[in-house]
Design a protein that fits this description.
alpha+beta, 5-stranded mixed beta sheet, Glutaredoxin, 130 residues
Length: 130
């Protein structure tokens, strides 16, 4: 199966990014191993909260031909860096500093855990004071 990286359509405007460092100091990246319909539905419902936290959703394994695919280089960088296990689907959070900050088994992930983790970060604390 060919691996692709998809930028979900409701986060348009990020397709210009060609390498991971293009996001650094601008966006936090939430990386899913594959699309989970319920989690994607929640993402849409919580859009305002994700935008407020400068959060972008990336999905590593998508069906061929999906729109809004990131550059092949970003796909390769993420796969090499995160080395996701096909047997243990994991969701990763990459902070604005470019470091892989947190990870959760996909079955244990919730947006409330994600938002609490982000809001506790020093950079986010500074953002909320502005």
């Amino acid at each position: 199966m060919k691996t692709a990286l998809l930028l979900i359509p409701f986060i348009c405007g990020t397709a210009q990014a060609q390498i991971l460092s293009d996001f650094q100091l601008k966006k936090r990246l939430l990386v899913f191993p594959h699309a989970d319909v319920e989690q994607l539905r929640q993402w849409e419902i919580l859009k305002a909260q994700t935008v407020d936290r400068d959060l972008i959703l990336l999905i590593l394994h998508t069906p061929p031909g999906e729109a809004y695919q990131a550059s092949p280089r970003i796909n390769t960088e993420l796969l090499e860096r995160l080395r996701p296990s096909p047997n243990k689907p994991t969701i990763f959070l990459i902070g604005k500093d470019g470091k892989t900050t947190l990870s959760w088994p996909q079955s244990e992930f919730t947006f409330s855990k994600l938002f609490a983790a982000i809001d506790a970060m020093p950079m986010r604390q500074r953002e909320m004071k502005r």
